[in-house]
């Protein structure tokens, strides 16, 4: 499974795996794909350093990358405290009441909210980059908007390719103008922040819009058939995130959450603003229902919503409060029915891809191998 | 492009085209695909007879089919007048006010509402079937739920295959239990009534759920790349509806609507209950916005909403009131950028399919032709 992009990166399969877990990222690269470590959860540079050291020690020389969340436009001189002060008291009260209704305990004394996504603050993302550029990363992905020009320039100086996620052809064209190298076309069915255009329509639209830039298809991909479909649509590879959440190398720290993921069907996710203030696909829970209920106060814009719910989400996860427990995940969650090693999942993807190619070749009346 | 199903039906390409226009249906079958005439707009049996006669005269002996809307469960003894009486006066007033706000004129004296979809009433659908079974149709599709058992039996007696649309694997399995022969897996991105699961996820899910029944992929398909993707996902063919709306053989009776379709991008549709009371993807207009506005009265359940807006929609269409003018159409509308003959569209699909197969074969490192 070789495309121009996979050849450029020296990988065996054009399968890119996004994950917050170093062990998953390393396993994906070792399997012949390209592991991309999500950096958003790292607040201390030393934690990121520790995990990149771990990847270096376990990736067997294969290439890998890093995913940060960095806005192209920054607001000068605004601190987290300033942003906190913008949150209306009524919304804080709604959080308190909802947690009380379900009897969600406090975090243990001295334990900080682990979920707080301070990686979204630009200064944190820049500190992450200072760490990351000391490692031989081959790809830097930005999950929200085009990366700033100086970051693109610095990456290119270090021979690091820059990727950016787009939910529409218009966004993809903006990324291209910002000088990036790869567009990740993120369809409606994807986990996390998504637009409304489904992968079947979005992938070829983005491919045509940014030609000759390579495009990775993201959203709805969790089998070899879907890999083949994405490549038929014109993608130079696929970008998978959800599928790795239930691998044995993943460390969700929550057996209850793993159980919920394994039990969920493709219809059990929702595109909700509950988590960050922007629409992000996630497991549908009584927590997302409460925020999406027209009778409630509704969600706040990013970044207010994320700050508002950070402690609450940490408490829900820490104490595994089942009806409220969720995570960003795509519609492909319906295919995640058992905990398996990354290598097994990868083998299924590549074997399924070959079978899908056999099928299409047969339908097209081609001679085959 | 041959699958088991296309061989069974004796067609050259596994491309099924749904359309309300006899000239389009005949042209699709003549091009080597399978034309399916939508019957929902026919109120008088003689009109359907006239159009089936026309197809017979123009289809050059190729197979074709009919699509009806028939509920599996019927409500005995309920007339259209009974249903009309259930509509709250406040909703009628909202329709009046909205039409007045845009200065929508009345229909000319004596002109009936052409849009009224009485084909949804079961007695009308049965009259349509009595007509259709006198013609050598090869396929009977039901757009809403499983067809009644006696209809399936009658179709099978006459060697007519029965298809039903499904937006989830659960619905598909119900159809299979009802004895149908083909499932049309209708993804979120499709025009008309849709669920929330996108084609990339839905197609393989339905294929696996109803195996060995053949599945047609619907939703987001308007190019040969998308045909190849759908077949890679396990479909035995594709079901296209939107793409034909801007063909030269289509007769929308509205140059303004054709212009809107040609100008619309993939992000210009919305899944709204405004038309029928069930979520149906259509062009987003100020009419759908009015119904989807939380400040308005909201929509009524099917069939009330359809009856409530029937006259209004006819007036909007008749007088081409631009901001309100819409039609069911899928996200693929972004690809419909010029009026072209059905044969041209078909040639693009088959040529694009071959190119997509070339591409996938190359990526897979196969020998090619």
What is the distance, rounded to the nearest whole angstrom, between the alpha carbons of the first and last residues of chain A? 14 Å
Could you report the average pLDDT of chain A, rounded to the nearest whole number? 93
Biggest interface: chains and residue counts? A-B, 54 and 54 residues
The coarse silhouette of chain A is: globular
Radius of gyration of chain A: 20 Å
The CATH architecture name of the largest domain in chain A reads Alpha-Beta Barrel
Based on DSSP secondary structure assignment, what is the total number of beta strands of chain A?
A: 11
The portion of residues forming beta strands of chain A comes to: 5-15%
Can you say what the CATH homologous superfamily of the largest domain in chain A is? Aldolase class I
Q: How many structural domains does the protein architecture of chain A include?
A: 2
EC number (chains A, B): 1.13.12.-
Enzyme class (chains A, B): oxidoreductase
InterPro entries (chains A, B): Aldolase_TIM, NMO
GO molecular function (chains A, B): monooxygenase activity
Ordered list of secondary-structure elements with their pairings:
The structure is a homodimer.
Chain A: H1 4-9, E1 15-19, H2 22-30, E2 34-38, H3 45-58, E3 64-68, H4 80-85, H5 89-101, H6 122-132, E4 139-142, H7 149-157, E5 161-166, H8 169-177, E6 182-186, E7 192-193, H9 199-210, E8 215-218, H10 224-232, E9 237-240, H11 255-263, E10 269-272, E11 280-283, H12 286-292, H13 304-318, H14 342-363
Helix pairs in contact in A: 2-3, 3-6, 5-13, 8-9, 10-14
Keywords (chains A, B): Flavoprotein, FMN, Monooxygenase, Oxidoreductase
EC number (chains A, B): 1.13.12.-
Enzyme class (chains A, B): oxidoreductase
